[in-house]
Amino acid sequence: MIGNLPYLVVGIIFLLGLYAVLFEKNLIKIAIGVSLIEASANLLLIVLGYRTGGSIPVFTLAGKVGKMVLPVPQALTLTAIVIGLATSALMLSLIMMLYKHYGTLDVREIRRLRG
Questions:
Q1: What local confidence, expressed as pLDDT, does residue 38 receive?
Q2: What is the structure's pLDDT at 59?
Q3: Dihedral sign, CA of 52, 53, 56, 58?
Q4: What is the pLDDT of residue 54?
Q5: Considering the domain boundaries, does residue 115 fall inside one?
């Protein structure tokens, strides 16, 4: 029914994040771009694990239900969320330290101020 729409949404989110990482000069915007890329990877895992008409993957229901949603992409997504949270916290703490040291969030200014 929805066809390839979830894959299109994943691609759009990924491209927005990639644009922010490659072309933005503000460190906060770059961190947001990395978070968007992580979110698109999580959404892709969820989309790949979805089954139409599938039920929840609970072992006690295994004999009663015909199709279940794949549990491995769900577990991978939960792990990726935790890793993404740690990555975001590290990026933001490094950005705070750079701002304290250089007084700016502009990548061009930080590159110019060597020393």
A1: 96
A2: 64
A3: negative
A4: 73
A5: no
- 22 in a domain, yes or no? yes
Q: Which residues of 7-31 are buried (b: 16+ CB within 10 A; e: fewer)?
A: eeebeebbebbeebbeeeeebeebb
Is residue 60 domain-resident? no
The CATH number of residue 34's host domain is 1.10.287.3510
**Total structural domains within the chain:** 1
Amino acid letter, residue 77: T
Question: What secondary structure, in 3-state letters, does 56-82 show?
Answer: CCCHHHCCCCCCECCHHHHHHHHHHHH
Is 58 a member of any domain?
Answer: no
Residue whose C-alpha is closest to residue 43's, from 17, 11, 71, 15: 11
* Consecutive 10-residue averages of pLDDT for the chain (115 residues): 85 97 95 96 89 70 69 89 95 95 90 69
The SS3 assignment for 3 reads coil
Give the domain range for residue 15: 2-53+68-102
pTM (predicted TM-score): 0.84
